[in-house]
Amino acid sequence: MKQINWISCIAASIVLVLVALPTVEKSIAAGSPAEEVKIDNFSFTPATLTVKAGTQITWTNADDIPHTVVSDDQAFKSKVLDTDEKFTFTASKPGTYPYFCSIHPKMTGKVVVE
Hints:
four-stranded mixed β-sheet, 1 helix, Immunoglobulin-like, alpha/beta
């Protein structure tokens, strides 16, 4: 009898883990949303990025020359980014945020926060 109870406990534990696993994976993914924008060839890629509030956005300068990331309303503003340097902003408030490179103002992009 004791052996049957022990096997039942193990089987129940395995079922519990298998049922809970997808929820844990979703929680981990939902807890740390992140997006990337590449700066290269005098452009931001993607040019328009739509994210949910709370998403962390990282711009990486892949160009051989410096660039900045500055929103039109100054909600975010990077330092001058040399090659391979990054700037990160957490989009916490819904809205549309056009941005540009202050060194090369014709370089533009947009973040839409839902």
